[in-house]
Amino acid sequence: MTAADSGNTVEVANVSRWYGNVVAVNDVSFDLGPGVTGLLGPNGAGKSTLLHMISGFLRPSAGALQVLGEPAFGTPALYGKIGLVPEREAVYAFLTGYQFVLLSAQLQGLPDAEAATSRALREVDMTSASERQTGGYSKGMKQRVKIAAALVHDPQILLLDEPFNGADPRQRLQMMDMLRRMAADGRTVLFSSHILEEVERLGENVLVLVAGRLAASGDFREIRKLMTDRPHTFTIRSSDNRRLATALVGDESVFGVELENGRLTVRTNEFSTFVSVAPQAAQTAGVSLFEVRPEDESLESVFDYLVTR
Amino acid sequence: MIALVLSLSLRQLLGQRRTLFLVLLALVPLLAAIIYRIGNADVEAPEFAANALLNGLVVQGLLPLTALIFGTAALGSEIEDGTITYLLAKPIARWRIVVGKLLASWTATTAVVLLSAVASGVVVLAGESEPRIVAGFAIALVVGALAYSALFLLLSLVTSRALFAGLGYAFIWEGVVTNFAPGVQRLSIREYTLGIADFIADTSRGNFDAELGFTYSVILMAVVCIGAAALAVRRLSRFELGESA
Question: Whole-model pTM?
């Protein structure tokens, strides 16, 4: 079955990439079709390596990686259908925003490069600043002009490496709307992020990469549930830890209570339930709560849980 | 496409700080020429122009250094800062990128070196009946600039320390080794350049003699230009950009 038959635009089959003895991406397989997909993972998880391989900038050490039915590496013609937003901030500092996007349009061989440039700059709300040199742009402006350059030729696939870095909240929402629109038009949008909330707000589908391995993939809500409904540990400070421990131990959301050296530690499977139960239990027991602190809520610990579950 | 890559690259090369250094360096032969004219040197003007000025300062110093800086920066600085992504992520045949970059490096090198050579040569030879010396060196420098540019462009695709490797080639291999090991002049762009200059300059009074003949020099120069450019295309076609890009 060809890529066109299956509706897949990106096909990644048992792909690995290593640098010497270091394995950056380890036996990853997935297919992508039209829609927005978030590539989520902590820093150093291999997201950029994977995106570079899909972009055709890196050759997989093992496995097969096809984009629109062609090998991603060594097929420059594919770039007529791919738009790429690299993570690095560097742009041609001596060009104005308009010249930078126009250069991209001309290198794509577009028949009306000027019109395409103006349209792309409008899309990212950069028309007013387009006559300034990109060297003087803020990080967020550079990011937007890079996106304009990537979508100037109306690509079928858009690959973005940490696209929201440096963007302010309003710009983020604007970019997210734009990417959603592109996906609704039948395009494949793949973006990487190490920030859960970004992926949550934009990605219908998500790929979670941890230590080079694909830890989870599929519908974001399912994965979010996995991430939330995992064992959590809270450390609590109150006016009477012993009485509060007695009150909490009877609650269904709590499966472990430990009181050691005056320190109360509570384990729960339901994060959101517990954070509403704890104050109620304290109030009922007549105890004042000073602090309810979740332990090790770093994204890395969430990812570790997904890998080891 | 080649014209786009060429104009972009020229703006990059000429806009960098190193260019100012090269322009200042290009003034050294002119300064030497002026000092020669002002002073009462024992050396005759044609001999000084051919040997000390155009061979010694320009061919052996200014030409390789200028070509090294422009040649390694044309692609090397883009690889280093990551902007190469914007060229590579386009549906352009890789040979067009290499040709555009090579032309940019060649143009920039030629502009700096040729102006310096012609201006200083004219100052020294004013009033002399040796017009072919400047013409011969000018043509040889244009051809030599292409060969050096091709070689250094290739180096920038092979190693991230292209500047050091190029310095080693130009000033240790060509500057030292070829003087002690007879026969290795055939592996020196400097010698090809001098072979061409000697033939066209036709310095009948023996002002200057190249080690290699004209035909040999032209053939070997062509081999270097075509070979280095072809290898650069092959290298860029298989080039991998790491995560940092």
Answer: 0.82
